[in-house]
Amino acid sequence: MGLVREAERGAGCWERAAGEGAAVRGDSAWARLKRDRLALAGLVMLSIVVAVAVLAPYLAPNDPVKVDLQHRLAPPSAQYPLGTDHLGRCILSRLIYGARVSLGTAALALTAVLLLGLPLGILAGYCGGWVDNLIMRLVDILLAFPGLVLALVIAGTLGPGLLNVMLALALVWWVGYARVIRGMVLAVKEKEFVLAARACGTSRWGIIIRHILPNVLSPVIVLATLDMGKLILAISGLSFLGLGAQPPTPEWGAMLNDGRPYLQVAPQLTLYPGLCIMTVVLAFNLLGDGLRDALDPRLTTRL
Amino acid sequence: MATPVLRVKNLSTYFHTSQGVVRAVEQVSFSLAPGKTLCLVGESGCGKSVTALSLLRLVEPPGKIVSGEVWLNGRDLLKLASSELRRVRGKEVALVFQDSLTSLNPVLTVGLQLAETVVAHEGLPWKEARRRAAELLYRLGLPEPERLMRSYPFQLSGGMRQRVSLAMALLLRPRVLVADEPTTALDVTVQAQILAELKRLQRELGMALLLITHDLGVVAAMADEVAVMYAGSIVECGPVTEVFERPAHPYTRALLRSVPRPGEELVPIEGQPPSLLGLPDDRCPFLPRCPEAREECRKRRPELLKVAPGQLVACHYPYMARDEG
Questions:
Q1: DSSP alpha helices (H): ranges in A55-191?
Q2: Average pLDDT, chain A
Q3: Residues of A in contact with B102 (CB under 8 A)
Q4: How many domains does chain B have?
Q5: pLDDT exceeds 60 at position A1
Q6: Which of B88, B99, B155 is nearest residue A192 as measured by Cβ atoms?
Q7: How close does chain A come to B300, measured CA to CA in Å?
Q8: What residues make up the domain containing B242?
Q9: Three-class SS of residue B125?
Q10: What is the pLDDT of residue B254?
């Protein structure tokens, strides 16, 4: 199956090359991604969730934090399409606003992770020597702890709150990136085009930014997409434990925690946020897998 | 002879490995006049490429330039500060590599890579830099340069890519071009075209060319002078006509005999080039393969001495001297 698909891809490139002459753009990553139905499904799901998060004020039927004690644990109705929670808050509205919080915090945490991991990984790989040693030993130390437990300790020390959770996660999460990126930089910097760039008088930073960074970027994109799902899970997990989002902030993990005592009488309180988390994580994983195939350097460099 | 634009004196580059010191380049000296071509020939692993990289101080650890001088325009490149050296690289001395597929960045378009050098060195706006790159590509015989510049290296044929590499080196009109086996990866027709273009541009720009090759046919077509390297040192050098017609070193003679000629028997050189690791320096490095080896060759390493006007040979018993004496 795989072989047949590869052969088809190859044939596709060939026809195009023959049609447009020698200097053509090969099969683009986007074209390959479009052919991957699962990845496309993930992309569509994520687009919907992002749209919902962005348009939350217009989509939510109720104020997500408004308490209505007269309608506690109410079944679905016209006013509350998915019913209410133990404080009579609209579950649907909370889920819609929760998308903002969950996706937003995960994206911010990921940005922080990249801001730490990319430069440190590149520095370690490119400079080598004691710089490499220092960074990598730090990475080793951090990797010796279970990540989530360490994040728990950091977040616990900093005190509860979404910002602290993001910070804690970023502080333990960057190590994986630094390690992977360092490895790739080590491989790329030995390539002849780096030597050629140096022979042209390109500066150290020019080489790092223009020659090394673009060559390590596509695996990082794949890694980041897959990690978005993991980060959402981690943030939800920490919120579930009471460290992340504080009441009344609507956050999926915190909603799970809120609904836990009512699991038997009102399972919808945990069911809906759980489904949301699962769907989004699944979507990120599908897209990440698709991107990995689409951005595979072996496919992009084939003629 | 005109004042040389590039003068290399006693250049030595060693690699300090865990097994010992590898003397990749040992006491290499040569000079290059403007507009002239010097060919550096020798077998694989004799130090040709390391010599080229050493000129621009591009040798990576564990390699190290241990001694020597590289004079360009009255400045010793081996003593320049790294920021000054960066301005020399590409602008005054440019390098072309053997395999253009690996020497071009696979993820950047050709145009970006070409323009980058111009922008970095001359501070031109990108648009201007691209225009200049397109012009040069056209002069190098590449049709539709605009379209070419939008493509990625892997989309081009080997010949086109090598022309792009050449264009990259020539963009800043360097005074010296160092080409490390620029046509080895190509088939002979493309090789001939590229060499012809190289020669034409060399004339137009008045550029000196240091051509590294193991192809004696290329040497005959291109060189004014030739330097034969063996085991990290130059064993014979001089004007190409002299060296080819009256080779004085047994290695040069053997090398010339190993070129296929119609109607003549091909004579391979017996044995292997010596390992540069722990090469003894109290005897001639060619000794184990030399058909003429004598007692003196085991006792002392021969120095590069003049045997004819402009022709230097590192051999205790060079042919010419013996024939005449």
A1: 56-59, 91-127, 129-143, 147-158, 162-189
A2: 83
A3: 191-193
A4: 2
A5: no
A6: B99
A7: 38
A8: 233-272+279-313
A9: coil
A10: 86
Across the interface, whether the CB atoms of B94 and A196 are under 8 A apart is answered: no
- The answer, yes or no, to whether residue A4 has pLDDT greater than 50, is no
Q: Which helix (H) or strand (E) holds B26?
A: strand B20-32
Segment B17-33, tens digit of pLDDT: 888 888 888 888 888 88
Contacts of A302 in chain B (CB under 8 A): 154
Q: What is the mean pLDDT of residues A78-84?
A: 84
User: Number of structural domains, chain A?
Assistant: 1
Domain co-membership, B181 together with B238: no
Same domain, B46 and B128: yes
Query: pLDDT for A140-156, tens place per residue?
Result: 998 888 888 888 888 88
Longest dimension (CA), chain B: 67
Between the CA of residue B165 and those of B99, B114, B138, what are the distances in Å?
A: 9, 9, 14
Identify the helix (H) or strand (E) that includes residue B31: strand B20-32
- Same domain flag for B121 and B239: no
* Domain range for A47: 2-301
- Pick from B205, B249, B207: which is nearest to B227 by CA? B249
Please write the tens of the pLDDT for every residue from B259-276. Answer: 888 887 888 887 788 888
Name chain A contacts of B117, Cβ cutoff 8 Å.
Answer: 200-202
Q: How far apart are CA B192 and CA B188, in angstroms?
A: 6
pLDDT for A280 equals 92
ipTM score: 0.79
How much is the pLDDT for A301? 42
User: What Å distances lie between residue B43 and B22, B251, B269, CA to CA?
Assistant: 17, 11, 11
